[in-house]
Amino acid sequence: MKTKVLFFLLVGILAGAQTNRFFYEYKFIPDSNNKEEVKKEMMLLDINKNGSAYYSHDKFVADSTSRAELEKQINSGSGNISVNRRDRPGQVSYKITKDYPDFKTYLFTNISTDKYKIKEDKKPEWKILPDKQKIGEYNTQKAITSYGGREWTAWFSSDIPFQDGPYKFYGLPGLIVKIEDATGSHIMTLVGNKKIDGPAQDKEMQLPDNVRILGMGGKELEITKDQYKKVWKAYVNDPTKNMREMMMKSGGDSNTKVAFKMKTADGKELSDPNQVFKEMEKRTKETLQKNNNPIEPDMTK
C-alpha cells in the first residue's frame, strides 16, 4: 500500500510542473597513486517531466555568485572587468542532462577556454540480480553494468519510480540510490530529496560581444566523443594554446585590453604574459598528473 501511495504522489509531482531534487554525496579518488585522499562533492539530480540534470551544488552556487558580481561590473559601464577564480568551491565542473522520454544524454564540459556538449552514444546495459539491501530508508535491489571503462554496481529502489540516476546512469525500474565502481574510486549515494518550483538551472548570462571569460557566456560546441578525445589530447599536450591565441587576437584590437595576473606558490605575482603562461602550463600539468582517475576513463583514452 505504501508503494502505491508513493507512486501516485510522485506522478502527481511530475504533472504539477515541479522539479524533484535529489541530493547525492559523491566520493571520489582523483589520484590513483594516492588512494588515501578521498574527496567529496554534493551533487544534485533535478528531475521534471522533460528530463533531468546532474551537476555540482557547490559549483552551481559559486557560478551564481560570480555571475551576479560580473553582471554588476558590466552594468557599471566602467570598462574594467576583474574575475577572481581563486578559492572557488566546486570540484566537479561538468553537467549531465537527459531528455525524456528517450533519455538522450549529454555531457557539458569545458576544456581551457572552450565549452563543449557531447552526446552520449551508448546506454547502460544492466544485469539485474536478486540481491536486496536496505540503504537508509530505501529498499533496494542490485544491478551491475560495464560502462565508460569501469565495472559498476548499482542499488535501485522501485519505491521511487524514476528510471534515472546520477551521472549518465539510467534504465533501471526505479531510481538509483547508490552506485559504485569496482575499485571504490567513484561512489554516488542518495542522501536526501526535496521539491522545488520552476526550472532548476539559472539562465545563461549574455556577455557583451567584446567580452570573453573562461567558462562563462557563449554557446557550447556540440561534438562527438571521438572529436572530444582529440581535443582533450591536444589540450594535454599544450594546455595554454587557447589562452595564447586569445591574447594574440586581443593584442590586435586597440579597443580591447587583456591582462593576466597570477601568483606563484611562494606568493610572487606574475604579470608578464610569457611568465604567466609558463606558470599556467606548469600548474595545469601538475593538476592533470594528480587527476589521473576520471569517472569515465574511456573519455580520455
From TrEMBL:
Q: Name one Pfam family in it.
A: Porph_ging
Q: Supply the InterPro entries for this chain.
A: GLPGLI
Region feature Disordered, mapped onto this chain: 281-301
Under NCBIfam families, the record lists: GLPGLI
> What is the protein's name according to its record?
GLPGLI family protein
**Species:** Chryseobacterium vrystaatense
